[in-house]
Design a protein that fits this description.
The chain is of the alpha+beta class and 98 residues long. The chain has one domain: Glutaredoxin. Helices cover 34% and strands 23% of the residues. It is built from 4 helices and 6 strands. The strands form 3 sheets. Strands 1-2 form a two-stranded parallel ribbon. Strands 3-4 form a two-stranded antiparallel ribbon. A hairpin with a 5-residue loop joins strand 5 and strand 6. The longest helix is centred in the last third of the chain and has 13 residues.
Amino acid sequence: MAWTPGMRELGGRVIGICHEKAHTLVGGAERGKDAVLLLADVTGEVSATYGLFDFVRSETEPGLLLIDPNGIVQLAVLRSLPPPDSIVRLARFFITGT
């Protein structure tokens, strides 16, 4: 993803939660397609915790969570993703205050 280098510069880490089985994600990572750490959420339980699992369609909705080192959600954008450059700007603001 184009915004992951900017996140690394800020000391942030990009993690994707996917409604897939772990072996599916490992295959994609081995092919070099993903520049983020992908975690499997087969049951949707993790996604549901953050309001991102649609139980009717049995799928994870897109979203962005900025979580500080203490595990506190500082920003949540649910059911959509901001443009990549905005994600880095938002992260910079919440991490550095500028």
